[in-house]
Amino acid sequence: MFQDTLDQLEKQTNPEQWPLVRHVYMDLTLAKMWENVQVYPVESLQTSILVGHEPDTPPEQQLVILPILQEKTVSMDRLSSYFKALRAAGFANQKGQALSKLTLAIIAPDSTIVYYHVQPGLVPPSSSNVNNNDDD
């Protein structure tokens, strides 16, 4: 059954990106025990994203996960392009609003995956944090 699911997902995924997508899918479903993880191709990014929610969280708290290699340079421009591409592809939160968070599944050469939540735009540090660091 699980292999059938993987075979179906492979058919809808860019062949160059399939190893990354498969690795993240297996981590989420087998190691982290997520259920109902969906994979959607995003042509403009030439990859697929995964959509699901963590166990014991409401279904409306879905995360959109983009698998990338650790070696890939991620800049503010690139992050902005990810959000724009996902918006253009019709991905939104449950209320139909633009995504406010994207989770990068950063895959290291040793197969370790680090999940990193990012939001569009820059958020400046609060003034209390800036003032507290002046003594360092």
TrEMBL record:
Pfam family for this entry, one: Sen15
Per UniProt, which keywords does this protein have? tRNA processing
Q: Does the keyword ATP-binding apply?
A: no
Q: Which InterPro entries match?
A: tRNA-endonuc_su_Sen15, tRNA_endonuc-like_dom_sf, tRNA_intron_Endo_cat-like_sf
Write out the GO MF terms.
nucleic acid binding
Q: Which GO terms describe its cellular component?
A: nucleus
Checking SUPFAM superfamilies in the record gives: tRNA-intron endonuclease catalytic domain-like
Task: Pinpoint the tRNA-splicing endonuclease subunit Sen15 domain residues.
Answer: 23-127
Among the GO biological process terms of this entry, one is: tRNA splicing, via endonucleolytic cleavage and ligation
| UniProt record similarity statement | Belongs to the SEN15 family.
Q: What is this protein called?
A: tRNA-splicing endonuclease subunit Sen15 domain-containing protein
Species whose genome carries this gene = Lichtheimia ornata
Q: What is the lineage of its organism?
A: Eukaryota, Fungi, Fungi incertae sedis, Mucoromycota, Mucoromycotina
